[in-house]
Amino acid sequence: TIKESKDEIAQYCSQFDVVCFSCYIWNITPTLEVAKLIKMLNPATKILLGGPEVSYDWMDVIANENIDFIITGEGEIPFTDFLNNYPSIEKVPNLVSKKNGEILYHQQSVMFDLENYSQLNPYISDDVNELNNKVLYIETSRGCPYKCEFCLASLDNKVRYLPIDNIKSNLLYLMKNGRVIKFLDRTFNVKRDFTIDMFQFILDNHRSENIFQFEITADILHPDIMQFIKEKIPVGLFRFEIGIQTVNQKANLEVSRKQNFEKTKSVILELQHKIEMHLDLIVGLPLDYWEDIKYSIEEVFKLYPPELQLGFLKFLKGTPVRNKYANHHYVFDAMPPYQIIQSDYLSKEQLHQITLAEHSLEVYWNKKRTINTLKYITEHYSIFDFLLGLGNYFNTQKSLHQYYLKDIYDIAYQYAELNFKHDTIVKQLVAIDYYLQNKVRPQILYLDDLIKSEKNIWVKQLGLNVHKYRFIMLSINFNFEVFAATGNIVQTDYLLIIQYDGVNKPIVINHQSALQIAI
Predict the structure, then answer these.
(1) Positive or negative, the Cα torsion across 56, 57, 60, 62?
(2) What local confidence, expressed as pLDDT, does residue 174 receive?
(3) pLDDT single digits (tens) 202-215
(4) The 180-183 sheet, strands edge to edge
(5) pLDDT at residue 513 above 70?
(6) Which is nearest to 338 in space by CA: 37, 21, 56?
(7) Cα–Cα distance list, 260 to 174, 220, 226, 267, 470 (Å)
(8) Which H/E stretch holds residue 81?
């Protein structure tokens, strides 16, 4: 893994005749560095690369003096032939090799029959005691029915399924020994009957601690699947990752992407009480200008997904968007992950500004630091402008990569003081979010706790257990109970009482009826 010492990897690998690496954008650079170290230790060791990062535009890679072979495309058949025939490799399909300074490529159309996976479990050699602490990945199919030009999956439009009995046996193994299971299928819900069958199998066999994550295309979600979810799936069992990418239909069409945002939106709203939604947007698509990106972020944020991922267009090897980059005057990083630098639609400075907004989004929303504040901003101001301004201000106060938890709230409160002088609710919500972040009664900041004599009156009146719990009492000017339930602001003098037990998330005490409201 990328966390392992390159020297240790090289020392181990240099003992072998041939060493093979799977290459992706996240590991190609350290892999090439390890290859160099291996050759320094043992020049006789041959190095073979495979995977998406070397399946396309591989000329520069094979020109590397430390690389001897590359297998392009789907690897099962070529790699098996390589293992069975080495060192006689002349007929291995889709193998790139070098001989007397000449590059040889035996290109062939081969397709592996996935039925051959019928008795295989990729986790069988893993320490079973470690599976519970990992995200466990499982595939039920290969390929994608869509042709989105920024995605490598678009190059394989034929969706093929693994043997269903094998899928279920491996899934049973993961459910028994693991906790979080993520399906890697690009669009899990392509087939109605298959999707419902798998959902039912999970319902019949899962353990209470299991969580399952699926990547789905929401606007084609069959009504029968939706009904199944609403009637049978318990809350918290499933997570859906939905790639919205952009709301701009012109940008979608420019990259051969089909999406009905209104249908996607309606599905999310209809199911979000049952399913945890993770939504994705991409910055930098052709025909997506600054105002388009702002609109997409604001429209998607209004759905209040537990996680909103803001990614930046990457020009992956082999993708049409990379092959046609000159059409839009794209400039992108020559090194992995080949991220956009500028285009006809976004300047370098605009992209930098959006990275600052993305930082705020990640720190304050995805990490659930100021949920109440950002919901209020969304209903009364521009959430894009707020995240952008907060990101810029954060950048003037701290390094974006090195800060403490207190810094996060200090910066948010200072930004609110500077930019929302006439709206005290923003500052009060930042303070409330700070107090609700801690399991233990935290340092008093931003809003003062009631003085002891006044607190004692409420403790006695409500019969609060001060021996078991700690309390903070804040005087604010809106009804927090109404806001938490509906998002509406009812201005009034209100006493917010927060209870801490030191173990669990704090709860808010409804002092009017002495009921507890979970946050």
Answers:
(1) positive
(2) 97
(3) 999 999 999 999 99
(4) 135-138, 180-183, 211-216, 238-245, 276-283, 307-312
(5) no
(6) 56
(7) 35, 9, 17, 11, 49
(8) helix 76-85
